[in-house]
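Most newcomers find our protein records easier to grasp once they have seen one. Read left to right, the backbone structure tokens trace the chain's path through space. Once this layout is familiar, the rest of the handout is easier to follow. The record below serves as our worked example for the rest of this section:


***
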Amino acid sequence: MFLYRILSTLALMAYFPVALFRSVTGRKQMGSLKGKLGLLPYPDLEGGIWVHAVSVGEVGVARNLLTALSKRVPGTRMGLSVTTVAGLAAARRAAGGETPVFSFPLDLAGPVGKALGAVQPGVLVLTETELWPLLIDRAARRGIRVALVNGRISERSFRRYRLVRGWFSRALRQVSLFAMQSEQDAERIRALGAPAERVFVTGNVKYDLAPAPPFADAVRLAEAAAGRPILVAASTGPGEEEIVLDAWKTVEPLPFLAIAPRRPERFDEVAGLIESRGFSVIRRSDPNVLPEPKSQITNHKSQIYLLDSVGELASLYGEAVLAFIGGSLIATGGHNPIEAWAQGVAAVVGPHTENFREITEAGEREGILERAADGRELARAIQAATRDTESAAAKGAAARAFVARSRGAADATAQAVAGLLPARPRARAAAP
């Protein structure tokens, strides 16, 4: 652990100038430095449950789990920590003031000690792949039980972790519960050193998402679409919007396109890209931009809707005939199609879906997800969905039904986590 602390500090010192440059130039927001260093107030959970989520996607997991936990252990104090700026915003909206939301500390001795000493949880719940060795070690020293929920280990992560298995297994032995998404995830975490008797397959909590509200900008979106079917390109990354635009503009007749970039710091960049391609932009954040008259819509010049807000993507899916799930035409591992399915919309993805392997494979088996190897195949998928909207709607209905059948992981996970709570509120522990 001493070597890890040295390496973590050196890594932070090396990365900080890069993160600061990205933040200043608007490429990637760094978030609250004070919060990461443990210099902001923390809630006192009095032996309750601290749930950690990295960003927007994991906030959905945390929200579903917290809802299930509140039914299992009513009256227990709970708090939610988040790493990213977008995640914090999404968490505060999801919590609605009922659950305290705070910044996750850097995995360094000072910030971790301050956080654990102030929050005083009985159980620390980490989501998906958030395994922080120092935090786990310090929690274990204080008698705080640690759980990994909705756990997943991608092939890429598995290869990396295996290189340090001898050292990493020590951290895993300090974790009390591994609630994994699939049997393959369970096998991988056991292979890395997790005690087999603590590993369970509880399913994917993301299927237990709450219904999305109606899209607040639906009227303007419908006016802009002017009766055309709507394609939503969601969670797109750098270099991917160009592929989507090139594929979309070849479709006849031209459907309406709404783009939702993955990272908020790229909103302006994507707006500029759209305009540089000769299209005008309707930005969600700018209600003064009005749709073009239907008579001016052509295959060569049209408006594109840019969802430059956080937390509205699920609602936007409800207006679509087809969803392209980004991060998959570029090598970033893909993103989650469940929100689209829950809104009754089938999905198309690129070849890179390692991060959501089991979900995308299930979607293919159900006939509610299609793979496109490149922009030309994406164009064909869009063409098929927008020409035969009845078939697309039938796939969307099947997608909604599939999500409904797949619910239940949140309650199973909550039951397991609740079993880790101490019998009575913890006395305030002294720092080690």
Q: What stands out?
A: The chain is about 45% helix and 15% strand.
